[in-house]
Each structure stands twice: as structure tokens, then as C-alpha cells.
Specification:
Layout lengths: L12 H9 L16 E2 L4 H4 L1 E4 L2 E5 L5 E8 L1 E2 L9 E2 L4 H8 L3 H4 E4 L4 E5 L5 E5 L6 H14 L1
């Protein structure tokens, strides 16, 4: 997918430094526009989502291509552990796709704060920030980094 060239509104320097500290090779940031937390349509996986070695991309209704991350929509927050976010097609995401649960279980976003349905509080939506990165995604990205080195 071709991504529209623009000046980034946010450059994700902390995320880049974190990934690089884990041995991942990170390229230049492409322009980002906020995509708030949102559920998937069952057709999104076939028509509007692309998984590449560079990440996960969403084709918006306006025709723009935006990089996104994925996270579980419903989560137990009682013990203060937010859901992990996914930035590539790791084994966790592949498992949900294979079982046909991807669009029912995951949301997409590219903002620091996201909406999660708190299973410990009657599935009320709450705002959560600073999601931890999925370790399976880190492992996949290390594999890409090692292949490129």
C-alpha cells in the first residue's frame, strides 16, 4: 500500500528508542493522523487491513493509509495490567485470525490513550494509556531486524 507523504504530527521517538533498545531496526516515521479506538468490521481484515514487515496498516474510509496498532477490546483491569498492544502480525494476532475471532476481540488505534471495556466493572468503557508492547511482536520484529542486518 502506498502511504501518503506528510509531515508527522507525532514522531513516536520513545517507541522508536524502546524498539531499538530491544534490537529492532526502526526506519523513519511516516505521517500519522489520530485514529481513535475503534472496533473492526468483519470485512476489514480482507479489505482494509494490511500486515507488512513495517507494521499494520489501515485503509481509512477517506482512502488514506495509516499505521495502527491492535489491542484487546475487553480486558480485566482489576489488577492494573492493561492489555498489550500489537504492532505486527505476531502469533497472538494470527491465532485470533485463525479462530475467526479477530474482529470480535480486537480494536485498532494509533493514539496513546485507548478505550477498553473493563470486564471487572460491567464492561464499562474506560480510557487506558501506556499499553505494554506484546512480547511476541518484539520477537517478530527482532526476526525482521536480524534478517535485514
Amino acid at each position: 500500500m502506498n502511504r501518503k507523504e506528510e509531515n508527522p504530527i507525532y514522531d513516536f521517538e520513545r517507541l522508536k528508542r524502546f524498539l531499538e533498545s530491544r534490537g529492532c531496526r526502526v526506519g523513519d516515521a511516516i505521517a500519522y493522523r489520530p485514529i481513535e479506538s475503534g472496533d473492526f468490521d468483519p470485512n476489514d481484515l480482507r479489505n482494509n487491513i494490511e500486515f507488512t514487515g513495517e507494521g499494520i496498516f489501515l485503509k481509512t474510509p477517506e482512502g488514506d493509509i495509516q499505521q495502527i496498532f491492535l489491542y484487546k477490546r475487553d480486558y480485566h483491569l482489576k489488577y492494573g495490567k492493561p492489555p498489550r498492544y500489537h504492532i505486527c502480525k505476531c502469533s497472538t494476532i494470527q491465532n485470533f485470525i485463525d479462530r475467526g475471532l479477530f474482529d470480535k476481540e480486537y480494536r485498532r488505534a494509533n493514539t496513546e490513550s485507548v478505550k477498553v471495556r473493563n470486564m471487572d466493572n460491567g464492561y464499562r468503557e474506560v480510557i487506558v494509556s501506556n499499553l505494554p508492547l506484546c512480547q511476541n511482536c518484539v520477537d517478530v520484529l527482532k526476526g525482521y531486524s536480524n534478517m535485514s542486518s
